[in-house]
Fold:
Amino acid sequence: MLLTAFIPLVLAALPSLAQDIVYDSAHNATTIVGTWSTGSKAVSTGAGFANPVNQSFIYPNTTGVSYSFTDDGFYEISRYRFNGNGSEPTCITGVMTWVHGTYQLIANGSIVMTPFGDGFQQVQDPCAAVSNFIQLYNETELYQSWRIFLDPVDGPKLHLFQFDGSPVAPQFQISATPNMLPTQSLINNTASDSGSLQSRSQTKRSGGERAWTPTGVGALLVSLVTVGAASLIL
Ligand SMILES: *[C@@H]1O[C@H](CO)[C@@H](O)[C@H](O)[C@H]1NC(C)=O
Ligand SMILES: *[C@@H]1O[C@H](CO)[C@@H](O)[C@H](O)[C@H]1NC(C)=O
Ligand SMILES: *[C@@H]1O[C@H](CO)[C@@H](O)[C@H](O)[C@H]1NC(C)=O
Ligand SMILES: *[C@@H]1O[C@H](CO)[C@@H](O)[C@H](O)[C@H]1NC(C)=O
Ligand SMILES: *[C@@H]1O[C@H](CO)[C@@H](O)[C@H](O)[C@H]1NC(C)=O
Ligand SMILES: *[C@@H]1O[C@H](CO)[C@@H](O)[C@H](O)[C@H]1NC(C)=O
Ligand SMILES: *[C@@H]1O[C@H](CO)[C@@H](O)[C@H](O)[C@H]1NC(C)=O
Structure:
């Protein structure tokens, strides 16, 4: 695949990159502004994926990830992933994540995405004591590098490389204008009501009713269940 040939090139180029990255047609055939989505494009940022006010999700038909960027520094991510488990093949963890905030294109070619604090994720782990719950997701994410190529058939194609250099699946531009929820915190995130944010159990309406199909067993940039978070649910 083209992608695997591309990674060593990027890694090899990094040490010699003493000067700032140049954003030109060789680096990014178009700007990063817009909405991007992987594969079947079933996952998109914006109103069709998550409702932060009541921390609920609308489950897409297939897994995928979607990123949006505005021209004035805001981002949003929707992710729907499955995680395999080598030692327990039936223990497939599903994670839905929604988060938004502000991003910075750093001169060294990296991107830093800083969340507003109203992000959340639903974790479904059929083998865990609590198999289905929602928790706060507020991780600052570093992407080491990014490129946008022009695919002759599919048009602009965004490649993001995570903090450890592993690639996010290539994303196609599904809209040149970003399709996003309002670019501000959508909940009242005060100390007094933070209890509602931390974690709550989810018994009926959720992935438990859905068939589990491990389509995308890829790298997952989420912090999974911690003992602390799990104990809050009980
Ligand atoms: C590459 O991205 C930068 C930053 O978004 C943008 O200013 C520039 O116009 C882009 N280059 C092209 C060729 O679109
Ligand atoms: C959350 O709010 C949306 C929009 O008002 C509604 O459609 C959905 O049923 C709500 N979900 C839950 C779990 O309350
Ligand atoms: C999933 O697929 C069904 C049947 O094609 C369709 O009716 C439904 O709207 C899809 N759901 C989503 C969230 O796209
Ligand atoms: C795999 O499943 C086992 C048994 O539930 C669990 O102890 C282990 O942490 C899981 N590994 C991963 C990587 O999720
Ligand atoms: C979320 O992370 C941001 C950036 O680190 C921080 O400023 C904010 O206080 C955090 N919010 C919550 C609710 O943890
Ligand atoms: C770019 O700078 C950031 C912040 O200093 C750093 O975390 C990141 O690793 C750097 N990226 C590269 C490719 O060196
Ligand atoms: C936050 O609280 C203020 C004052 O209580 C209220 O006017 C506002 O609508 C709330 N915003 C959200 C997103 O709930």
